[in-house]
Design a protein that fits this description.
Spore Coat Polysaccharide Biosynthesis Protein SpsA, Chain A, 253 residues, 7 strands, 7-stranded mixed beta sheet
Length: 253
């Protein structure tokens, strides 16, 4: 508990056997009430290790995609009575110790969504982020900020904390099951007026860190621009999109 709120950490996992134990060891157990791992049909020992660590494990019987994995994570966390859900990748790219300040910014009522930004603090490249990914991140973020009128340092971090209200009220079940899910969810948070904040998050890129290929990165980048365009069209009432429909599909308890 933190500030009287239940904190649940969710780990969307796929082939994370090499880094899962190290990630879990640094999760702050003094404030985290439950840890959920959703396995997207891994081909290694991720599930066995997760069970050995005492995590609550949910398994997809087929590979459904990164977005679908998160949908399961959030649904199961809310069933446990979470007030704040922190999504952390189990590949040890992001420092688990930041769960405490990220969750605190939500439980204190300062923000509804908190992002761990690899760009703030100017540590991304020294942490091993490939140069092409850094450049793409900065360019896409600049373009997206200008398109939707916000000022984030990055839209592409996989380290996020959400209030229960955000997860229940955003139509996230309308979103993609693929990597663009993250971007859609942020756009929804802005569209529906939730407060989004950031903290500095040093990152560590190693050979065991999860990463998408260059070709899939290009597809993702084009998808980001497409989703920002949909946001603009919806904002100016020019064309409706299901992901910005307040009556769209939501997680139901």
């Amino acid at each position: 508990m933190l500030n009287g709120k239940k904190i649940v950490v969710v780990l969307p996992a796929y082939n994370a056997e090499k880094t899962l134990k190290k990630t879990c060891e640094e999760i702050p157990k003094d404030i985290v009430d439950d840890i959920i791992l959703t396995d997207d049909n891994s081909r290694d020992a991720t599930v066995e290790i997760a069970r050995h660590l005492g995590l609550k494990v949910f398994i997809h019987d087929e590979n459904k995609g990164y977005g679908a994995n998160q949908k399961t994570c959030y649904a199961e966390a809310l069933k446990l009575g979470a007030d704040v859900v922190v999504m952390l990748h189990p590949d040890y790219q992001y420092p688990p110790k930041l769960i405490t300040p990220m969750a605190a910014l939500v439980t204190s009522g300062v923000f509804d969504v908190v992002l761990g930004s690899r760009i703030l603090g100017n540590k991304a490249l020294s942490g091993g982020m490939p140069v092409y990914k850094y450049i793409a991140n900065r360019v896409l973020t600049l373009v997206e900020n200008n398109m939707i009128g916000e000022k984030l340092s990055e839209y592409h971090t996989g380290y996020r904390a959400f209030s229960k209200e955000v997860l229940l009220n955003l139509p996230i079940l309308e979103n993609s099951d693929d990597f663009i899910f993250d971007n859609q969810m942020l756009l929804q948070a802005f569209f529906f007026g939730y407060r989004v904040g950031e903290i500095t998050c040093p990152s560590a890129y190693t050979k065991d860190s999860s990463s998408i290929s260059f070709s899939r990165s290009v597809v993702y980048g084009l998808g980001v621009l497409s989703e920002a365009w949909k946001y603009m069209l919806q904002k100016f009432s020019l064309k409706k999109s299901g992901i910005f429909d307040k009556n769209g599909k939501k997680i139901a308890l």
